[in-house]
Amino acid sequence: MLADALQATDQDLVLLFAQGDSAAFEEVVRRHEQRIYNLSLRMLGRPEDARDATQETFLAALRKLPSFRGDSSLGTWLHRVAVNACYDILRRRKRRAEEGLPEDPGAAPGDLAESSAEAVDVQRALAQVPEEFRAVLVLHDVQDLPYDEIAEILGVPVGTVKSRVHRGRVGLARLLPGTDGSPGASDGKMEA
Fold first, then answer.
1. What's the domain count of the chain?
2. What CATH number has the domain bearing residue 123?
3. Stated pTM of the model
4. Which of 87, 108, 129 is the last residue of a domain?
5. Where are the alpha helices (DSSP H) in the chain?
6. How do the pLDDT tens digits run along the chain, 192 residues long?
7. Are residues 9 and 84 in the same domain?
8. 8 Å CB contact between 65 and 28
9. What's the domain range around 34?
């Protein structure tokens, strides 16, 4: 069955998993894990939190995949689950701060895989952008998803996605050192 899973579409994998093929779920994880982790890392800013969100995403998928209806692509559905997992972690982080509990001293913002100071500045600034704008910026500018797919993931109209992308970019530009508060002359895409 493993050979079948490697050549199957995502929709086929869902059906194989529903029939009891555990290799099908392993293939789903293999195909989508890196994108889910990257989304989580950019939304949360901490590798530890990103690993937790990725794990929560696939645990939820393991429980709910047999009831996946296929109204959207599997990737879109997994992105939605991941965004929700990230929101949960951000809410817990906010509650801890409100309760006066210390943050994890070993956690440092920024993508450890990226070595340039500019990338670290962007990651730190992105962590300060409000959640609803951060999600669309990561999905559109980092993961290069189209507006309609982002709208489906977030459950909002396409116009709202476009507005949030614009407002998020403006907010991000204001937070970046050495910018005048307006998006630069680039195409508006952030480096992955």
1. 2
2. 1.10.10.10
3. 0.62
4. 108
5. 2-7, 10-18, 22-44, 47-64, 74-98, 117-128, 131-137, 147-154, 158-175
6. 455 556 789 999 999 998 988 899 999 999 999 999 999 999 998 899 999 999 999 999 999 988 888 888 999 999 999 999 999 999 888 887 777 655 554 444 444 443 445 566 777 888 888 888 988 988 888 888 889 989 998 899 999 999 999 888 888 888 877 655 544 434 444 444
7. yes
8. yes
9. 1-108
